[in-house]
């Protein structure tokens, strides 16, 4: 698992039948200091995350362990929206603050 920021959506009007109805988001992996990296992924969004939110990503075979992604060709899934993130006792991110704390 890793933490990422939702930076956009992916629209694919033609896709395999078993992927119909799944929302796709473009996510960017974050460092432990809550800074963006150059690592990107397309993840299935099963929780309704919005652009700008930090989310928890499960990847590999674990991405197919949700009710909506079971037996589908999914390699990354947004499984949670992050409310608070701490590293060594320091808050790196708080969703509920007007200008979310980062770093």
Brief description of this entry?
The protein has 103 residues and is mainly beta.
Textual characterization of the structure:
There is one protein chain. This protein has 103 residues and is an all-beta fold. The protein has a single domain (2-102), classed as OB fold (Dihydrolipoamide Acetyltransferase, E2P). It has strands at residues 2-10, 23-30, 36-45, 54-59, 76-81, 84-87, 90-94, 101-102. The chain has a five-stranded mixed beta barrel with strand order 1-2-3-5-4. The chain starts with a strand and ends with a strand.
In the CATH hierarchy, what is the architecture at level 2? Beta Barrel
Topology-level CATH name: OB fold (Dihydrolipoamide Acetyltransferase, E2P)
The outline comes out as elongated
**β-strand amount:** over 45%
CATH level 4 superfamily: EutN/Ccml
Mean pLDDT: 88
Class per helix and strand makeup: mainly beta
Number of helices: 0
- Indicate the percent of residues in helices: under 10%
| Rg on CA atoms, Å | 14 Å
Strand arrangement, major sheet: 1-2-3-5-4
Topology as H/E string?
Answer: EEEEEEEE
Which regions are unreliable across 5 or more consecutive residues at pLDDT < 50? none
Supply the number of structural domains.
1
Major beta sheet summary: 5 strands, mixed, barrel
